[in-house]
Amino acid sequence: MEHDTVRALHWTGETLVLLDQRRLPHEIQYKECASAADVADAIQTMIVRGAPAIGIAAAYGAALAVRQHADPAKREAELQYLAQARPTAANLHWALQRMRAKLANGADAETMAAEACRVHAEDVRANHYMGQLGMGYFTVKGAVLTHCNTGSLATGGYGTALGVIRAAYAAGRVSCVYVDETRPWLQGARLTAWELQQEGIPVRLLVDAAAAALLRLESVRWVVVGADRVAANGDVANKIGTYGLALAAKAQGIGFMVVAPGSTLDFATVDGDAIRVEQRDPDEVLAFGGQLLAPAGVTAWNPVFDITPAELVDVLVTERGAVERPNRERMAALRA
Ligand SMILES: CSC[C@@H](O)[C@@H](O)C(=O)COP(=O)(O)O
């Protein structure tokens, strides 16, 4: 098994230590979470981000709630606080549901922590499996384009879309990785470029607005992205800008691959229209590094995810298998 360059989360046995992703790549700082509320705040403020990593953090948060409180009402309040940290990533609710089931069976703090560690380890295993499965589609060596950060930092380790790219690069099937900078948080520029550089994988950064031109002018074989939630019909919620990439890929006849673990699949949500898309503070768009970019008084629209209709997805890769051109019927094969 290949090594992972970095870990976003570390369980000490008593606390959860998170690599502060807001400060990367130039500062390595950690945030120690001793309570569920600390974890919820870390998710809300993007110290930890990426759907699978959010789910894993929430699982550890639930273990901390049980360690901290004997009173079921207080535990419940902590779990609800965690559940509200961010709305779009399905993994958050999936993880809390799994931890609640343990709790309902009378689990103590130690058993809860062991379950959270299992959630974490299973995610890493799923990523390695998806890496192998996904790279099977890269039949000709070439360049790929990815968006946001879906690597070790966004998951328990290794990555979803970036896991496929890493596996494919190791197998000699990727020549270069184009990375969208991913405004406004710059997950591509700050995090993905950093992860790829550490691996020695050739990386070229582009502004988000250059992606369609890249697909038209350069020979890119696949666009590979992750997901925050996949609805029962295969519609995909992912970082804002993903829908535009899918449209451009379709227009150019370039493959569009989505890579996501089972914990991101939401069969209770009928389609993308029913997915709640998080809106964040307009200041994330209007200012940068504390410096106002736009004229004072201008407002901004800041949805942080968009919905890509299933018909634009060529293949959805999960650890339960891969589905080509997902629709409601084909998605059924991925039910747990
Ligand atoms: C494996 S991560 C998949 C998605 O979570 C990722 O593409 C993404 O959109 C992350 O958004 P973020 O706002 O950084 O949490």
From TrEMBL:
It comes from Nitrococcus mobilis Nb-231. InterPro entries: IF-2B-related, IF-M1Pi, IF_2B-like_C, Initiation_fac_2B_a/b/d, M1Pi_N, NagB/RpiA_transferase-like. Keywords: Amino-acid biosynthesis, Initiation factor, Isomerase, Methionine biosynthesis, Protein biosynthesis. It is an enzyme of class 5 (isomerase). It catalyses: 5-deoxy-alpha-D-ribose 1-phosphate = 5-deoxy-D-ribulose 1-phosphate; 5-(methylsulfanyl)-alpha-D-ribose 1-phosphate = 5-(methylsulfanyl)-D-ribulose 1-phosphate. This is Methylthioribose-1-phosphate isomerase. Pfam families: IF-2B. GO terms for molecular function: S-methyl-5-thioribose-1-phosphate isomerase activity; translation initiation factor activity. Pathway: Amino-acid biosynthesis; L-methionine biosynthesis via salvage pathway; L-methionine from S-methyl-5-thio-alpha-D-ribose 1-phosphate: step 1/6. Its EC number is 5.3.1.23. Belongs to the EIF-2B alpha/beta/delta subunits family. MtnA subfamily. Catalyzes the interconversion of methylthioribose-1-phosphate (MTR-1-P) into methylthioribulose-1-phosphate (MTRu-1-P). Also catalyzes the interconversion of 5-deoxyribose 1-phosphate and 5-deoxyribulose 1-phosphate. Part of a bifunctional DHAP-shunt salvage pathway for SAM by-products. It comes from the Bacteria. GO terms for biological process: L-methionine salvage from methylthioadenosine. Substrate binds at R49, G50, A51, R86, Q187, N238, K239. The record marks C148 as: Transition state stabilizer. The active site is at D228 (proton donor).
